Each structure stands twice: as C-alpha cells, then as structure tokens.
Amino acid sequence: MTPPPVPLVSPPVNQTGTGAVTFTLNGRPVTVRADHPHLLAALREELDVTSPKDGCSPSGQCGCCTVMLDDKAQVACQIPLTKAEGRSVTTLEGLEEPERERYAKAFAACGGLQCGFCIPGIVMRAKVQVDKKGAALTRQDMARHLGAHLCRCTGYVKILDAIEMVATGREAVPLAPGGVGSRGARYQAEELALGDRGYIDDLRPPGLLHAALHLTKQARAGIKRIQTKRAQMAPGVVAVLTAADVPDALKVGIIHKDWPVLIPEGGCTSYAGDVLAVVVAETRQAARAASELVEVTYEPLKPLTDPLAAMASDEVAVWGTDGNVLSRSAYARGNVDAALPASAHVVHEVFETQRVEHAFLEPESTMAVPRPDGGLHVYSGGQGVWDDRDQVASVLGVDKDRVSVELVSNGGAFGGKEDMSNQAQTALAAWLLGRPVKCTLSREESFLMHPKRHPIRMEYWAGCDEEGRLTAVRARMIGDSGAYASVGMKVLERAAGHATGPYRVPSVDVESIAVRTNNPICGAFRGFGANQAQFAMEGVMDRLAEKVGITGWEMRKRNVVHPGDVWGPGQVMDEGCAGAERCLDVLQPHYDEARLAGRAVGIGLGLKNSGLGNGFKEVTKAVVRFRDDGRVEVRHGWTEMGQGIHTVALQVAVEELGIEPERVMVIVDTSRELGQGQTTGSRGTLMGAGAVRAACQAATQDGCRTEVDYLGEHRVDWTHHIGEVENPVIHSAFGYAAQLVVADPASGQVERVVAAHDVGRAVNPTLCEGQVEGSVHMGLGYALTEEFPADQRGFPTKMTLRSLGILRPKDVPPIEVVLVEVPQPRSPYGIKGVGEIGLVPTAGAVAAALHAVDGQWRATLPMRPSRAGTADGDD
Length: 875
Ligand code: FES
Ligand code: FES
Description:
The chain is of the alpha+beta class. The strands form 8 sheets. The chain has a 7-stranded mixed beta sheet, sandwiched between helices. The protein has a 5-stranded mixed beta sheet with strand order 2-1-5-3-4, with helices on both faces. It has a 5-stranded mixed beta sheet with strand order 14-22-21-20-15. It binds FE2/S2 (inorganic) cluster (2 copies). One FE2/S2 (inorganic) cluster binds next to loops.
C-alpha cells in the first residue's frame, strides 16, 4: 500500500485566499505556503523547525511530532493548516531556556531516552501536563496521556521517572559517566531530548532535491512496461529514474546479491516492497505526488505465500533465484532415536511464531551529496556503512573510493537497518543529477520495504528422566524468509544453534530451513532467531516439568548449563555460562514469594550469542587522538542507534586514560576503515570497548603525544563453523537472562516482570537497565499482541503503527531489572552484551504464567492478538 495521493496543487486554505497561512510560532508571527498537507510539513519543510520529528505522518499515531497548539498538546501531522491559521504554535525551540534545561537534564539524569527520536514529542506532551497539574501529576495519569505516543526503545520506565522528576520539582543533575561500571548520562542526552541533534531527515544542504519511490502494486508479477511520462511532467519534477538508468549492478545484498534496487521492464517483482521508479523533485511533496503518476503494466503471477507449499513447489518464487530453499542448517549429537523412547517423560509440540515489524520510530532516510572531487558522499542511518558503501559503488559501477558513506546516528533500528533500504536509489539520483538528493520513507513504505522478524514453525520432541533431567531434543524448524535473502539463512542458523536453550542435553538433532516466499522479507531483528527457538524450548521445559511434578524453576535449575558442559551444537561452555544459573538463583526468592502469594507465575531462561561467531573473523578498530586544544577524540565506526555505544566508548577512554569525561569527543569516523562491519549481534559494546581500550593503551605506552592517531584493535577470529570440529566454539560470548512474569490468577493480566540479566560487566548500569526495560516491553508485545501478518497477495494487512499491537505505556507492567555480572573470559572487562538477549526469555515466561491462570498450554504467538487500539487523544 502506498500513501494516498496528495493533490498536485492544493486550493488556498486561508480566509484571505492568498495561498498563505499565518500563525504565531514560538511567539513570532510566521506566514507559510498554504499547500502543505499538514502543520508538521510546514514546520519542518518550510520553516526548518525540526524538533517535531516525523515518524508516521499523516497518520498521527507515533506522537513524535507533538507541538502545542495554543495550550493543548497535539500531533502536528494531524493539524491542517486551516486549523493553525491565527493560532499559537509552540515547539521545543520556543520554550524558555530554563524550562528546556529542566526537561533535558531530567531525561539525561534518569536515562529516559535511547535513540531519542520519540522524546521531543513526549517532552511537549509532558510540559502541557506538568503545567496543568504540577506535582499532582501522577505516574498513572502521565502513562495514560502518553497513550498517544510510542517509544520503541525504553519501555517507558525511565521516561516516566524523568517526567515525575520535573513534575515534582526535584532538581536533575545529570552526571557525566566515569569509567567502566559507573552510572552516568548518555552521550549527547540533552541535545537528543530537545530534538537538537539532527537525524538525516533534519539535514538541509543548499540545492537539495527530494526523491520518492514508486513501489509495486503486485508482490509477484512480470513487469511489462513502466511509463514515466506523466510523472516527469508533474510540477516540480526534475527526473524520473528506472532500472534502465542503473549504470552497473542491479542487485545488492549483504550476503547474497539477489535484491534488485529497481525492477526493470522484463523483470519480475518478488515482494510488496519492490521499487519500480524513483521520482526526484524540488520538494518532498511534489516527488511523492508525482510518484503516484508512474504507470506500470503488470503480468500478475500467483504469489507463493505458504512456506511449506513453496518448499514443495517447482515454481521459483523469487525472480533470478534458482529455488525456494534459501538455507538448511543441521547438526546432531548423541542418539535421539534411542534416547527419546527410553525417556521417562516425552513431549511433542508444534510451536508457531509470527512475523513482527521493528517499528523503529525514525523511518529510513538517506541523503547523497556529490563531492567536489567527482565522488559521492552518502549520509546513511544504516547499521553497516561499509556494506552500504560497497553496494552503492557496485550499483554506480565505480571504485569504492569514489563513494564515501557517513553514518548519522539513527532513531532506532533493532536489526531492521542492516540491509539497504533507499540508499542505492538515493545515491543513484544524486550521482546522475549532480545535486544533493534526500529520500525519506513514509511509514507505510518503511513497513513494506525492510526485513522483519521471521515467523517460524518449530516442531519439537523432547524427553527427560524421572527427575526431570533432559535426555534428548529433536527440533525441526521452517522459517518464512520472504523474498530476498537478507540475512535470513543466518537467522535460521542461529535459531538452530539456540534450539536447546541454555541447557545440558545429551542427545540433540536439529534441522532448520529458511524458505523463500513472496511474503515480506525477514532478516535481522533483536534476538535473531534465538527468541523463536527459545519460546519453543521454554514451552518444552514447562510441559516436562508438569509431567515430572516439579516447578518450572526447579526444572531449569536441574538442567541449566554449567562451565565445562557440552552445549547445543557441541560447544564446551566456559566460565561465563555460570551466569545462567546465577540469574535463576537471583529470581528464586521472587518466584517463591509470588507463588506463595497465589499469583500466576511463569519463568523463562535464555541465552543469546554476542558477536557473529560461526567461524567469522571479527576485527574492529578504534582511534584515540589527543588534540592540542586539550580534547581527546575517540573515533569508532559503530552505528549509534540508542544502545549507547558512544557512551561506552567514552567510559572506556575515561577508565583507561584517567581523564575527565568532559574532555572526550566521541566521533563516528567512517572516513577510514575501522573495520567493524554491521552493528549487530550485541557486539558493539564488546568489540568496541576492546578496540578503544587497545587504542588507549597504545596512547599511554607512547606518552599520549598530541595530534597522533593511536590505533587499537580487538579481534575475535577463533570461532568455528558448526561441524568444523567436534566441539566447535561457535560463539565467543553469550549473554544470559532469566525473567519472571507474574500475572493476576483471575484476569490473566500481567502484573509485573522481574528481569535478571547477566551482562558480564555493566559498563553503565543505567543504560544497561534501559536496554533491558525496552526489550522486556518489546518481549511482552511479542508474547501477547504484536504481529505483522500478510495476505494471500503477499501484502501486509496491518499498515498502521497502531494496528501492530505494540504495548502502550499504560499497558506496561512494572519492570524490575537485576543486573548480574559473571565476567566473560577473553572479553574486554568481561563484557557479554545486552542488546539482543533482552526479550529471549519473555514469551516463554508469559506462556507459563498464563498456563498457571487457566491450565492451557500456548504454542502460538501472539497469545492475545490485538485489535487495533485507539489513541487517548489530544490533551
Ligand atoms: S508524525 Fe505525527 S504522530 Fe507520528
Ligand atoms: S528513545 Fe523512544 S523511540 Fe528511541
């Protein structure tokens, strides 16, 4: 689905009929063109007021664009300019400095933000409530008012802490973080809270053109003809590009080059996000309007949308590929055929998980600017700028050094920005036209284009002895990977590797298949296959526990992996794995107490690798430079997407160099190859900290001379492929977590979550807790309400943020985080990583708690599919 067409020329909307609208902005009268589709567009596109962010315009469902209209908080993308005429509009730019500071410092001190994209809108809503109610504003009340907002990063806990701090008049003093292990404010937290630190869509170089994409209306069809004439003649249009304009490689991909950046005449579409044309115009509005005028003649083909049928079919679902089985991952140990029948108890269950949308709040945006030397500079919010550079260069048919890609910290990603979305098309336009071009996706285009979390069908057979000790697990998994490969084969490989959870299992037999279909593409998403597999494995553990007659906690205690045990595909676990049992032990008193109190209780235990592993050689570098002006630059190349990698880099520098944090400047340096690849797999902190530490040590050994680049490197090049040796080290590190879900035994409402996470070493406990709170929020949604289904045509059926089932603040139960620190051998400071493990145990724990409510075993996610909710409205 593409957004509704916008009229090419809007009628004048002000009463004077002059085609202009006048209102007061931040105390000053302004006049804007009348043809903007809403107030947000006028603010951002004409007035360059960028603190209100555009997460979903014009649907009004994310809250990022909240402003004050007179004295009410309202989302600006739902305000027609007719309604703004003669009124007073206030944005964060217009608040008095002491008030701005109060909010900025409170959010910084409380850790109330991660990527920051949602926060300016939330601050405006909070301001209205605090102005009205002051200290009488309750947390519950504020949570209800935040119903018009989404935050995908924080779980809202620390956002509410920050608002409470302002409402009660407590002074916030954000502390700069110290060395490793100290609490402290996130790097650039105050600028982020106020919306002052720009995202790509906030950049506005002179002469900028805007690109809009024409997406296919058929998920699987031959493309007979693409007619661009009407679009070319539309007002403001500079060019319309098709595949015929691509100078070199038509297909890109992180691993397999199977994803066309544009589908040519004579080619075929393979999913609903395929791009057929790029329209470039003087304004975003003109580009989007004209993109509707591209005419395409399709020869429809029946989409293959059932992965089982696609596996069995001789028909190839995806254009240019040679079969529908993308990958098969398998391993076996022991003798499952003998062990299962000999087991005292056996369970057999089919688990099914759903497709899920990342719903990062910042839709994908790219800007490309021709360089004076004839090259091209691309601003990307992607998770792997070197992959972006290589792929863009291949599309343009130029040497890699003619393309530079600069990372701009993004507004959330969670794995969904690993593949390129609009980078190649934007670069192509700027390259051919010789002018800066920006392309920002609408929310609907974002839904259609980027890869999702895999739905996986998992059939499990598992046995245990009389005491509940696991004897054997057999698992067969089939994942719907959608059309193009992305990293789908790696996700299913990871699901296979994590199939037995953090347990000792003597006999294992696992097979996992990724299937190509014409459904939305699936790829990386926080947890990367481990969530799905461990929802199944935790379900198995609880079913076996019931048969044995012991609690879920006891079942896990009897089977949890110990140092020296052989795990999963044969890895001998190191001392770091003691964290799994430690997490269980931390939860025991909470578990016992809740059961004694008659609550419905479920527990989940999980592990998730940190780093890529599986034989991949991971090398990352960082640079430390003492400047003549006293500042110390720390340069790295990781993508900051709210997880806090900049803060980690700063804290390591403070720790190693013994300097004040104020002296440290963290710089994302993509001008030189610091060699990290994708920011993925919970590895940024682990690898980045190692590289910065090494750079600091090099500086120290050399006397910290000024204006010298000190290079440090961290290397993990000692993992194995599954099956490479008898006991492969498939991953260098794992994070561990146990989560307790407590529900009301009468209503089944989740009352609270206690999350014990072994992170190895918490570099910054405040940020660590925030990561866990955010992932528990995501995990509860995954368990209960979130889904992103597609129909028989291969098109998603839930095309608004509100329909995805993401939990709103008032529906999030209290989340208590307990950080556990069992150091990881061979890792800097013992770090294990925290980003991905966060929601691995959640769905299993929720399923067990709900079983305690009604005795029903649940094997399908989500367990309570949502009906689309409604916003609480404007204040
Ligand atoms: S951009 Fe206005 S509510 Fe999302
Ligand atoms: S901090 Fe709220 S969406 Fe990232």
